[in-house]
Amino acid sequence: MLRHRQLPVHSLQSSIIIIIVISPRTADTSSLGLLIGIIITTMVVYAVLILNKAGGLIYQRDFNPGLQKLSSNDYLILAGTFHGVHAITSQISPTNETSSSGLEVLESENFVMRCFQTLTGTKFLIFAEPRQQNLDVVVRRVYELYADYVMKNPFYQIEMPIRSEGFDRHLTSYIKPHQ
Amino acid sequence: MNRDPSPFRTASTASTATSPTPKYANLTASTNLRYSLTRKSIYDRHLNRTKTSELSKSAFAFLFGEMVQYAQKKVYGVQDLEKKLNLHGYAVGQRFLELLLWRDGRTAKRETRILGILQFISHQLYRAIFQKQADTLEKVRENEDEYMISDNDPVVNTYISVPKEMSQLNCGAFIAGIIEAVLDGHCFPAKVTAHTAPNEMWPGRTVFLIKFEPEVLEREALRVGS
Amino acid sequence: MSSTSRARLGEEVWKLRTDKINAELVTLTYGSVVAQLCKDLDGDYAEVNKQLDKMGYNIGLRLIEDFLAKSNMQQKCANFRDTADVISKVGFKMFLNITPTIANWSSDNKQFSLLFDENPLADFVELPDDGKAQSELWYSNMLCGVIRGALEMVQMSVDAHFVSDVLRGNDTTEMRINLIRYIEDEMPQDDE
Amino acid sequence: MVVYSFFIFDRHCECIYIRQWLNNTPSVAQPLSRPVTASSVATVATSVAEKPAPGSRLSMAEQAKLVFGVIFSLRNMVKKLCGPEDSFLCYRTGHYKLHYYETLSSLRFVMLTDIRTESLKSSLHQIYVNLYVEYVVKNPLSPVEHAGGEGVNNELFELGIDGFVRTID
C-alpha cells in the first residue's frame, strides 16, 4: 500500500533527495504533502531540544549518536545559557535592522545546529551532521508536530516539560529514517 | 429517560418516535424570543446547508481538548471522566441521529435488528460524522449481548497522549456516547465503552464495546422466532 | 503585507495545509460544552460567559502555535490594522473557514469590530426561552477568549467582547477588539 | 561580502584589538586607549570606547564585552556537547555572521560579516599567522602582554588587516 513519489528538488542541495511516502500507517494526517514522512536520505539528525520562552528546557531527545550524553541538569544549564546568549546575539547585531533576530545557525567542526524561535518565544534546536543546509525544512516540520501533538494534547500543561507519547512517536518516525 | 443536559433545542424537529429528545411543546405556542427582522432564523435556513461543510480538524481538537480539561477538573478518577465525555457524546449523537434520519428522507428506514443497527452505525453514521467507515464490526464470542466496533484511529484521539498514570483512559468515550445515543434513539438501549486496543500498525486503535440491555436480546429472540 | 495577500495566504492554508472535519460535529460539540456550562453554573449566564471566555483563552494560548506553524508567518505584524487583517483572513479562515468583516476602527487605530456574517458555532442554535438567556448569554464567547489568549502569546494584550449577536435578536453579530498595550519582550536576566 | 568588525581577545579574556568597517570602507581605527576587559569594561569611562559604534546602539567597548560573553559561552557549549576536541566555528543570525578562531595559546579572533560570507576559519588563521605573529609578536617594541591593546594597534598590523579584508571581499 505504499506509494512513492519523487518531488522536484528545489532549494535543496542536489545530493539530497526527498522521497515522500504516503503510508496508511502514518497517523499524522496533515493534508496533502504533509501526511507524510519526508525522508532526506543524506541527513542525520543528532538531537532535538525545545526551550520554553523563559529558557527552560522542556524537551530533549537524542536520535542518532553524535553528541555527548549529558546529565539532565547539564542540559538544563545549557538551555539556560543558550537562552541568554541567543538574546545577546541579536543585541550585538552590527547592522541597522530594527527587527533583529538572534542566532539561527551555529556550526562547529562536528555538528551544525539550527535554532528556530517562534513568534511566541519558544525555541526549537535541531542538532545535525555538519554542513547540512536544509535544516529549515526539518525545523518547520518539528514545529508542526509540536503544534499538533503537544499543543492539542489536553494533558499537556503549557510551558512544562513535554511527556507526550504521540509527539515522541511522530518525531521518531519523521527523523529516524534520515540516516 | 431524558439524558440530554441541554437547555437548547436543535433546529431539527423531525423526530423519530423513539428518540429521547426533549419535548417541543412550547415551540409553536408562546415564545418570548426575539428574532432579527433582517436575518433568517434557524427555522428559515435549510437543514442541509451545513451537510457538507467542513471546519478545521484543529478547531475541533482544541475544543475537544478544552472540553476534556474542563471535565477533568470536576471528576474523581478516570471512570468519572469517561462518563462525562460519554454524556457530551450522547448529546451530540442524539442530534446527529435526527439530522441523519431527516436527510434520509423517504428512504429512511427503522432498523429493527441488532445487526442492522450496528451496520447503520459503523457505516452511515460513521461516514456522516467522520468521513470514513468504522474498521471492524464483531460479535464478542463469549457474551451473547456484546458487540465490538473498532476504529483504528479515532478522530478525537489523533493528538491526544494519555499520561501513564491515567492509562485506562480513552477519550473515545465521547464517540462511545454518540453510539449509545444512536442505539437509544433506535430503541436498542445499551452501554457503550471505549477501550484502547493497539496493534503494531495502529497505536491508537480503539474498540467500542457495546453491551445491550437484556430486553433488546429478548426482542431479538422473538423476531428470530417468528 | 497587503490585505489581499493575507487573504491569499488564508485561502492557501485552508485549502492545502488544513485537515478538515465535519462542521456539524464541531457545532454540536460546542453546543454540548455550552449546555454543560449552563447546567453546571445553574443558569448563571454571566458566569457562563466568563467560563467560555476562560476556556477560549486556554485554547488561544495553544492555538497560536498551530496558527504560526501552519501559516508559516515569521514576521510580526507591522501594526494593529495588519493584525486585524491576519485574524480575520488567516486565523478565522484556517480554523473556521470564515472571514469576518473588519469594521468600525477607532480613530487611534486601537479598536475595531469583527462582523460575523456566518458563525459556524451557532448553526442550529436558538437560545433558551427563559426570559434572560437572550439578554445575558453570549453564546460564542469562547471566540473572544481565543483571540485574547492567542494575541497575548505574540505580545499583544487585548480585550475582546461581543456587543451584539443575531441569537439575541440583533441584526448583526459583532465582536469588539481593543488593543490595551503591546507587551514588552521578555529579556533574560543579564547574569554576568 | 561585507566585513563589519574584527576583535581579538587574549588569554586573559581581555579585548586587545577592535576594528570596525562601515559599508566595507575602512573607518578610523578604534584603538583602545585604556585597558578594556570583559569584566572591567562597564566601569571604564574612556573617550572612544564609550561612544556608540556606528550602526549600533552600543559603544564598541560594550559590544566587545558582549561579543566575548557570546563566544565564550558558545565555545563552552560546543565542547560540552561534542567533547573537548570539537571547536566552535561560526554562527549566523538573520542579519550577520560571526566567525571564530581560537589558537592553542588561547588567542581568540572574531570577525563579524554579512550572512552570505563563507567560512572564514582559514582566513582568521591566516591573520594570526601572517599578521599577528609577524607584526605583533615579532615586533621587538611590542610588549608580551597587550593590556589595553598596547602593541597590537601598530601601523603595519593595521594596514595588513585592511589589506586582508579587501582580499576577502
From TrEMBL, chain A:
Naturally occurring in which organism (per UniProt): Arthrobotrys musiformis
Highest taxon of source: Eukaryota
TM segment ranges: 7-26, 32-51
SMART domains in the cross-refs: Sybindin
Keyword Membrane: yes
Name recorded for this polypeptide: Trafficking protein particle complex subunit
GO term, biological process aspect, one: endoplasmic reticulum to Golgi vesicle-mediated transport
Family: Belongs to the TRAPP small subunits family. TRAPPC4 subfamily.
GO-annotated cellular components: endoplasmic reticulum; Golgi apparatus; TRAPP complex
Keywords: Endoplasmic reticulum, ER-Golgi transport, Golgi apparatus, Membrane, Transmembrane, Transmembrane helix, Transport
TrEMBL record, chain B:
UniProt keyword annotation of Endoplasmic reticulum present: yes
Biased segments, Low complexity type: 1-22
Residue numbers spanned by region Disordered: 1-23
Example of a GO cellular component annotation carried by this entry: endoplasmic reticulum
Domain of life: Eukaryota
Subcellular location: Endoplasmic reticulum; Golgi apparatus, cis-Golgi network
Alphabetical UniProt keywords: Endoplasmic reticulum, ER-Golgi transport, Golgi apparatus, Transport
UniProt GO BP: endoplasmic reticulum to Golgi vesicle-mediated transport
Keyword Endoplasmic reticulum (UniProt): yes
Main location class: endoplasmic reticulum
Xref: InterPro entries: NO_sig/Golgi_transp_ligand-bd (IPR024096), TRAPP-I_su5 (IPR016696), TRAPP_component (IPR007194)
Subunit structure: Part of the multisubunit TRAPP (transport protein particle) complex.
Family, as annotated: Belongs to the TRAPP small subunits family. BET3 subfamily.
Primary role: Plays a key role in the late stages of endoplasmic reticulum to Golgi traffic.
Protein name, entry field: Trafficking protein particle complex subunit
Biological source species: Arthrobotrys flagrans (Nematode-trapping fungus)
Lineage: Eukaryota, Fungi, Dikarya, Ascomycota, Pezizomycotina
Automatic annotation (TrEMBL), chain C:
Keywords: Endoplasmic reticulum, ER-Golgi transport, Golgi apparatus, Transport
A Pfam short name: TRAPP
Family matches, as InterPro entries: Bet3, NO_sig/Golgi_transp_ligand-bd, TRAPP_component
Source taxon at top rank: Eukaryota
Subcellular location(s) of the protein: Endoplasmic reticulum; Golgi apparatus, cis-Golgi network
Entry's Gene Ontology BP terms: Golgi vesicle transport; macroautophagy
Main location: endoplasmic reticulum
Gene Ontology CC entries for this record: endoplasmic reticulum; Golgi apparatus; TRAPP complex
Keyword Endoplasmic reticulum: yes
Family: Belongs to the TRAPP small subunits family. BET3 subfamily.
PANTHER family for this protein: TRAFFICKING PROTEIN PARTICLE COMPLEX SUBUNIT 3
Protein name stated in the entry: Trafficking protein particle complex subunit BET3
UniProtKB/TrEMBL annotation, chain D:
Keywords linked to the UniProt accession: Endoplasmic reticulum, ER-Golgi transport, Golgi apparatus, Transport
Cellular localisation: Endoplasmic reticulum; Golgi apparatus, cis-Golgi network
Subunit structure: Part of the multisubunit transport protein particle (TRAPP) complex.
A single GO cellular-component term on record: TRAPP complex
Name of the protein this chain belongs to: Trafficking protein particle complex subunit
Stretches assigned to coiled coil: none
Gene, per the UniProt record: BET5
One BP term from GO: endoplasmic reticulum to Golgi vesicle-mediated transport
Major localisation: endoplasmic reticulum
Family of this protein: Belongs to the TRAPP small subunits family. BET5 subfamily.
PANTHER family the UniProt entry points to: TRAFFICKING PROTEIN PARTICLE COMPLEX SUBUNIT, TRAFFICKING PROTEIN PARTICLE COMPLEX SUBUNIT 1
One Pfam short name: Sybindin
